[in-house]
Amino acid sequence: MATGSKSRLGQRAIVIGGGIAGKLAARVLSDYFNEVMVLDKNKESDQTSLRSGVPQGSHGHALLKSGEDILEDLFPGITNELLTSGAIPSNFSKDISWYHHGSWKIKHHSDIQTLQQSRPFLEGHLQRRLEQINNIHFIYGAKVSTILTNPDKTKITGVTYRTNFGVIKEFNADLIIDASGAATQTPKWLKQLGYPQPEKTEVKVDLFYASRAYHTLSPIEKDWKGLLIYPNPPGQARGGGIYKIEDNKWMVTLLGYGIENPPADDHSFLEYAAALDHPTIYQAIDRGKPSSEVSIYRFPSLRRYHYDKLKKFPNGLVVMGDAFCRIDPVFAQGMSLSALEATALKEVLEKATKNRSLNQISQFAHRKFSKLLDIPWMIALTEDFRFNHTTGKRFLGLPFLQSYIKKVVTASATNKDVYETFIHVLHLKAHPVKLFSPKVLKAILFKKVATGTSSAHNDHTIRT
Ligand SMILES: Cc1cc2nc3c(=O)[nH]c(=O)nc-3n(C[C@H](O)[C@H](O)[C@H](O)COP(=O)(O)OP(=O)(O)OC[C@H]3O[C@@H](n4cnc5c(N)ncnc54)[C@H](O)[C@@H]3O)c2cc1C
């Protein structure tokens, strides 16, 4: 798949971390470098199983439409492959029942058609496609510990890594991508090299996820493939969701903000589900058959590094994915942001190819990534600051946005045009300015009700 005819930017690129961001970066780099090495500290090469380096893999992962479209661009035919291997096709507003701020969204056929699958299933398919690209090589059990530079420390020239047997090895490279997720060591490496630290924005949310897979759900009538019961802040900090995934399984995730004790066993899992804003998740699982134990993941803070603002940064190092910004997972944006960043990386590499130089590649890439992040970051914070315990820097206009979005959410219960616009924004397929279009404004201001679609769906009585 690598374009052998293209003039290359360099001999070797190294990607630190083989998660989603690292995989997508490797795919893009394979068109510009003779060799791409992906180093991951994980032991296993079987990417379809849960990996210790990606503990969030056992929790519900939804891929937004924007992310899915980019995967299809980078790996033509992958959507069909996922589908034929068992991913569940889902029309977002028709197949997902969503209870949000106290009302059910109106059901209609949307043009947002997505696939539902577990994260290991998705990663496994990406991995198999990458293994068909002959200039990409994966090295497992390779924990990158330091970065190497030229004598005046202006350019990164390689990495050293520790193998599972404790042996230290090194690789030289023309470009290094840090895609090591939450464990990123770039700030530490910058400090060691005498560079200034990046500004860091942190917003503390104290979120937890508790997830388990189910073989079967309770024998109830379901008109959904996915069910979302969102928290209703400030009063209700609990939420959850159910997603049908591959192998005829259901992924059930319960979550909570600022709650000290996540439900970690059978009894507390059910008890917690029963205390959500709406009983549907509880009713769907109380007679279900779990196929896994409950996994817990704690997500203390959203964290964003402003590498884009640094005046001094060594060339040849680009930070992306969760290593650049970790966003509240409830909005399912992380993997799609990595995909958007991969597209931005491609643009930067294309420009570098024209200029025949990798100079300033880091600055160009970080600036693009930061711009891409502004909107998802704002979407997440608008909701997260509804909780009283959330702490961190608020942005200008937050109270207005919170009040307006609540009106959009309320209108999404009865007006399919408003809901359709809302989900295009959430799937990062439309700019939020669309939420202020005359059509949406009119619907909100004059409380215009359903355009042609019955809201009979909104009867969520569970029939057994
Ligand atoms: C609970 C939870 C639920 C989520 N749900 C969603 C969702 O529904 N939708 C969505 O789009 N996103 C979701 N996300 C976010 C998503 O998981 C990430 O944003 C996305 O996968 C990008 O991750 P990454 O590749 O940057 O990092 P990771 O997936 O964390 O991968 C980092 C990799 O780097 C490796 N590594 C780390 N340090 C080193 C080192 N020193 N040397 C070598 N290798 C190293 C690790 O082994 C790992 O493989 C969720 C996150 C969490 C925590």
From TrEMBL:
Q: Which domain of life is it from?
A: Bacteria
* Domain FAD-binding residue range list: 13-354
What organism does this protein naturally occur in?
Answer: Mesobacillus persicus
Q: Name one Pfam family in it.
A: FAD_binding_3
State the coiled-coil residue ranges. Answer: none
This one is known as 2-polyprenyl-6-methoxyphenol hydroxylase
Any GO molecular function: FAD binding
